[in-house]
Design brief:
The chain is mainly alpha-helical and 191 residues long. The chain has eight helices and no strands. It starts with a helix and ends with a helix.
């Protein structure tokens, strides 16, 4: 690509036709160059247009067609590297914020789970011994049949202890209905 001396001189004087000629001569090449830096077409086009706009503003300072040619590529490269760096930094910040948010949510979930577990353990420890054994077994993932076998009682008796335990837990945890729901879901899942 060679810029003619005539087009260059007219460009420096502010001739829009010469500007258009030079623009058309370099546009596709510069956009293609920018896209090699992992930028999408729209970003590449914006960079090239901004570069031309900047050069148009400083055109009177240019000394030769070779200087214009060199400036087009240098300015485009610099803008491209700046945009690519900014996009990378922006993505890094987004990822860090997302990670921090996930971490905060995980800590929050963990604390809630720990507090619920503590409250449940406290309530279960207040149950009559037989009811406590049934509930602890259910929370550990055992079936009523397994619990009845370990306690050497019938399955129906284990069911009765379970129902009594749930009624007692409802009273003990009346201000925390979610825990009762959790107990019911876990115990019904196994039967």
């Amino acid at each position: 690509m060679i810029i003619s001396e005539k087009d260059f001189q007219q460009f420096v004087k502010g001739d829009e036709k010469s500007f258009e000629t030079i623009f058309c001569q370099y546009y596709k090449t510069l956009v293609s160059y920018v896209m090699r830096h992992d930028l999408v077409a729209m970003e590449a086009e914006d960079i090239v247009i901004e570069t031309f706009h900047h050069i148009w503003q400083i055109r009177e300072d240019l000394k030769s067609p070779a200087a214009l040619h060199s400036l087009l590529f240098t300015a485009t490269r610099n803008r491209t590297l700046n945009v690519a760096r900014n996009l990378k930094n922006r993505q890094k910040i987004i990822n860090e914020n997302y990670s921090e948010q996930e971490e905060t949510e995980e800590v929050y979930d963990y604390l809630i789970e720990e507090e619920m577990s503590r409250l449940l353990d406290e309530a279960v420890s207040q149950l009559p011994k037989q009811c406590e054994l049934v509930i602890v077994g259910l929370l550990a993932g055992k079936t009523l049949q397994e619990i009845a076998g370990e306690m050497q009682i019938s399955v129906n008796t284990a069911k009765t202890y379970k129902l009594r335990a749930i009624q007692s837990l409802r009273k003990l945890l009346k201000d925390i209905p979610f825990l009762v729901l959790l107990i019911l879901i876990r115990s019904n899942r196994k039967n």
